[in-house]
Amino acid sequence: MNGVLIIDKPSGLTSHDVVNRIRRILGQRSVGHLGTLDPMATGVLPLVLGSFTRLAQFYTHSEKTYEGAIRFGFATDTYDAEGEPTSQPQPVHLTLDQLQRLAGEFQGNIEQLPPPFSAKKIHGVPAYKLARKHQEVDLQPVRVEIKEFTIGALEDGRATFRARVASGTYMRSVAHDLGQRLGCGAHLASLRRTAVAEFDLTQAHTLEELANLCHSEVEEPAFPGTITKAGNHESAGLISSLLIHPRQLLPQLPCVTADELAAAHIRNGRPVNLPDHSRSRQVKVFANQRDLIAIATRVAGTLFHPKIVLTPGTRIPVHPA
After folding, report:
1. Number of domains present in the structure of the chain
2. CA 69, 150, 87 angle in degrees (round to 5)?
3. Separation CA 310–CA 314 (nearest Å)
4. Is the same domain home to 13 and 128?
5. Is 318 domain-assigned?
6. What is the phi/psi pair of residue 15, to 5°?
7. What are the catalytic residues?
8. Residue 253 sits in which domain range?
9. Last residue of one domain, picked from the residues 196, 224, 257
10. What is the pLDDT of residues 152-174, one digit of tens each?
């Protein structure tokens, strides 16, 4: 099965846990995700299936949108609610206006220090592995972009927020830094991702929903590492109906439909002329309304070379002139 499937990730699972469960539900090993979510976080986790895993390279810098809550009064070592407090809780006396003004100072291009419990590498070792061993975590600030950060409400030292950020931004660090600026400490209490690139919660499905369609279980298998084929052709068809329509993927790239001969050449990695007048450097190539067969790069004029072939074809015999 090839395509993009949006999962509403539950709290308590890593992104890789979700990938493993989908592998078992679908009986398919070729599954990847487009952007890690912390175990505590919930929400949009786009998965790429089959040959569409090759599209992941186009989503490495995708914009993300979040909703969540920040708890003021103490910080934690992980910068979120799952960590250990690094100070005694203290009463806070904040106003909504005060927080909203401070939130404005976090918008734009800013320097941000990643959390010590993160996947950022120090001399090739993920920071969280050092932090778990109580070793020194010497991370350097990185440049991130926060396109939108608004505080919606404040009650009992807990503030709700909405944020739209560029890739690489840690909302845990935003919460921690707010607490530092206010002198009272703070941590991320909850986080829900509502959008990644062109994908949002309206397109998302739960693990239970998929398991029910395939008449399979979402629990761990009896033998770790095994994949159990689940369901039948009918359930496979139902799962296929949940995939994002290929023409909705990578909306920044124009869609071009190739005729039968051009599609055969594209599938075999050969350059072809395509009916495109968009002047875009790259296009999505379809063999019909739904069959996305390649991402092609313009060579000159209407001549394109397939950069990524998603549905390889049989070799076309070359006859001498």
Report:
1. 3
2. 40
3. 13
4. no
5. no
6. -60, -35
7. 38
8. 246-309
9. 196
10. 999 999 999 999 999 999 999 99
Do 215 and 287 have their domain in common? Answer: no
Residue from 5, 24, 10, 52 nearest 310 by CA? 52
Structure tokens at 218: 């979402």
Residues 6 or more apart whose Cβ sits within 8 Å of residue 65: 162, 163, 164, 165, 193, 194, 195, 196, 200
CA nearest to 34, candidates 249, 220, 246, 209: 249
N- to C-terminal Cα separation, the chain: 39
Answer whether 0.85 is exceeded by the pTM.
yes
Give the CATH number of the domain where residue 219 resides.
3.30.70
Q: What is the DSSP string of 72-119?
A: ES--BTTSBTTS-BSS--------HHHHHHHHHTT-EEEEEPPPSSSS
- Alpha carbon 187 to its chain centroid, in Å, reads 23
| pLDDT tens sequence across 233-292 | 566 678 889 999 999 999 999 999 999 999 999 999 999 999 988 889 999 999 999 999
Q: Which residue has the tokens 């690094």?
A: 86
The pLDDT of residue 216 = 52
Ramachandran sector of residue 104 (left: φ over 0; alpha: ψ -120 to 50; beta: rest): alpha
Q: Is residue 320 part of a domain?
A: no
Considering the domain architecture, whether residues 75 and 192 belong to the same structural domain is answered as yes
DSSP labels for 167-227?
Answer: TT--HHHHHHHHHHHHTS-EEEEEEEEEEETTEEGGG-B-HHHHHHHTT---SPPSSTT--
